[in-house]
């Protein structure tokens, strides 16, 4: 089966998934207004039944979500500033057909990220401030540090599911999506300016996914002209 998302540009993929998150929240009775003055953060005021709270929208094409730790894991960029986390995720990272949307209380998400950070730190893994730290939406049963905090989907039902083909069929005009592209979500990776920094970041990401020490990951880089 053709992976429809893989055929789209990065901006189209992101806009499609953020659009799904907003559409689902609106179907749940929320009205959304982007919080001004937050740079590239994807932060929204969401209002329902006269009550307004602050939400972060996260999109994921591998069923992991990320927030960057700050101050040695005692704080979280963006996550500490919101009360709700709205997640749009593909149903399968390898063969996605649908976008699923979930709405989580930020307190639960913070609890899981705190536990994940503590478990990785206890194992001696290096975690840098302002690097995105990933936690799986699905339960990881390997019983390793990378497993801690995963499985939030065991406790919350999805609020909506949309076929990717239908979302693409909506065919939003480029002009209508321009503002959202300009306000794309904050990057959860650091600003990388050297090959060494990119390799260090990649080793950390691989180590987290594999549940091993960073020192156990060996990467080879080959550049062909």
| SS strand fraction | 15-25%
Radius of gyration: 18 Å
CATH class: Alpha Beta
Shape: globular
CATH fold-level assignment: PvuII Endonuclease, Chain A
Q: How many domain units? A: 1
List low-confidence stretches. Answer: 173-187
The pLDDT mean sits at 84
The largest sheet has its strands arranged as: 1-2-3-7-8-10
* C-alpha end-to-end distance: 34 Å
User: How much helicity do the residues have?
Assistant: 25-40%
The quaternary state of the protein chains shown equals single chain
Q: How would you sum up the major sheet?
A: 6 strands, mixed
Order of helices and strands: HEEEEEEEEHEEHHH
Find the structural class using helix and strand composition.
alpha+beta
Could you give the count of β-strands?
Answer: 10
Report the total helices. 5
What is the CATH architecture term? 3-Layer(aba) Sandwich
Task: Describe, in plain words, how this protein is organized in 3D.
The protein is an alpha+beta fold and 225 residues long. It has one domain (5-190): 3-Layer(aba) Sandwich (PvuII Endonuclease, Chain A). 29% of the residues lie in helices and 23% in strands. It contains five helices and ten strands; from the N terminus they run H-E-E-E-E-E-E-E-E-H-E-E-H-H-H. It has helices at residues 10-27, 106-122, 164-169, 174-182, 195-210, and strands at residues 31-34, 43-48, 51-60, 64-67, 69-70, 75-76, 84-90, 98-105, 133-136, 160-163. Strands 1-2-3-7-8-10 form a six-stranded mixed β-sheet. A two-stranded antiparallel sheet has the order 4-9. A hairpin with a 7-residue loop joins strand 7 (84-90) and strand 8. The protein is globular and about 50 Å long. The chain starts with 9 loop residues before the first helix and ends in a 15-residue tail after the last helix. The model is unreliable at 173-187 (pLDDT under 50).
């Amino acid at each position: 089966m053709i992976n429809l998302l893989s055929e789209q540009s990065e901006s189209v993929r992101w806009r499609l998934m953020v659009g799904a998150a907003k559409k689902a929240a609106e179907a749940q009775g929320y009205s959304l207004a982007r919080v001004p003055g937050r740079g590239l953060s994807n932060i929204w005021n969401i209002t329902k039944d006269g009550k307004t709270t602050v939400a972060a929208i996260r999109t994921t094409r591998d069923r992991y979500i990320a927030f960057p730790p700050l101050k040695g894991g005692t704080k979280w960029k963006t996550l500490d500033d919101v009360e709700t986390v709205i997640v749009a995720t593909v149903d399968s990272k390898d063969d996605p057909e649908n976008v699923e949307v979930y709405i989580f209380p930020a307190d639960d998400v913070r609890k899981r990220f705190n536990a994940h950070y503590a478990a990785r730190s206890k194992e001696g893994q290096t975690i840098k401030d302002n690097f995105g730290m990933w936690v799986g939406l699905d339960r990881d049963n390997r019983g390793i540090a990378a497993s801690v905090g995963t499985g939030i989907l065991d406790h919350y039902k999805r609020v909506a599911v949309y076929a990717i083909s239908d979302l693409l069929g909506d065919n939003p005009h480029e002009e209508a999506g321009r503002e959202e592209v300009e306000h794309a979500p904050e990057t959860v990776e650091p600003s990388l300016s050297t090959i060494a920094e990119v390799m260090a970041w990649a080793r950390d990401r691989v180590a987290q996914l594999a549940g091993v020490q960073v020192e156990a990951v060996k990467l080879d880089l080959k550049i062909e002209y």
